[in-house]
Write a structure and sequence with these properties.
By secondary structure, this protein is α/β, with parallel strands linked by helices. Helices cover about 50% and strands about 15% of the residues.
């Protein structure tokens, strides 16, 4: 069993779970951090049995403003040396800026911006001292274009993308590899099934599987890629969204009464 750990946030489901699985296959012991206590316990048993790796779990709401420090303190107390940091935890909601729930908006900013940044600061400093480490931050193609209804999501993901580019430039001198994963729509429980038909999205090829996104993300990280945009359809959707003028998006919203 390896004493070198990979820390994966949001690891109890979706992309985070599949990334954790792939890192276990590479021989890393795991620190799984999530706000789903029962799933964490089940995954600990499953991973230790199937992959013969050590698995530590930490039940924590990462949108809590001191969450990053608590994760770091836990690792210090348990003598867990984190070689791979995966900032994957996140959540999604539709809603105009003026009508979203204030508490949810605050949670999203704290999770996507504050916790992600401070985990990079705390663990990145340790990697810098050792002159070895890997950081994978999960952003989104929503970071590249402004759309109505996802202002909080898109803006916080844009922050992650920008932050990760700067971090990569700072840490590469110390042999720490930093990669930004920018998936498109992925078939996970991130989406409200009453709003988004995930099964239909998969059938149409618009949504990728979490397994595929995770595989490309992990491969990109260990190949030292700056940005990973997984899937041809995702890249095509991003291309067409970038060349679409903002007035066209406004016209569609006006005519369809989207988010009325």
């Amino acid at each position: 069993m390896n004493d070198t750990y990979a820390l994966v946030t949001g690891s109890s489901s979706g992309i985070g779970l599949e990334i954790a699985r792939l890192l276990a296959l590479r021989g890393y012991s795991l620190l799984l951090v999530s706000n789903e206590a029962e799933k964490l316990l089940l995954l600990k048993t499953e991973f230790e049995m199937n992959y013969q790796v050590k698995v530590a779990t930490l039940y924590l709401d990462l949108s809590y403003h001191h969450a990053a420090q608590e994760v770091f303190n836990y690792c210090q107390q348990e003598t867990i040396e984190v070689e791979v940091l995966v900032n994957n935890a996140g959540f999604f909601f539709f809603g105009e800026v003026t009508s979203v729930d204030i508490y949810q908006a605050k949670q999203k900013i704290q999770l996507h911006v504050l916790t992600t940044s401070l985990l990079c600061t705390l663990f990145g400093n340790e990697m810098k001292k050792r002159r070895k480490g890997f950081i994978l931050n999960n952003s989104s193609i929503a970071a590249y274009k402004a759309f109505p209804g996802i202002a909080y999501y898109g803006a916080t993901k844009a922050y992650i993308s920008s932050f990760t580019r700067s971090l990569r430039t700072e840490l590469r001198y110390y042999d720490v590899w930093v990669t930004c994963l920018c998936p498109g729509a992925t078939a996970t429980n991130l989406y409200d099934p009453h709003v988004i038909n995930v099964d239909l999205g998969k059938k149409l090829g618009i949504m990728m599987s979490a397994e595929k996104v995770a595989k490309l993300g992990v491969e990109g990280l260990f190949r030292n890629k700056a940005v990973v945009i997984p899937g041809l359809v995702t890249r095509l959707l991003l291309f067409f969204s970038l060349i679409t003028p903002q007035w066209v998006i406004y016209a569609i919203r006006k005519r369809t009464k989207f988010l009325k």
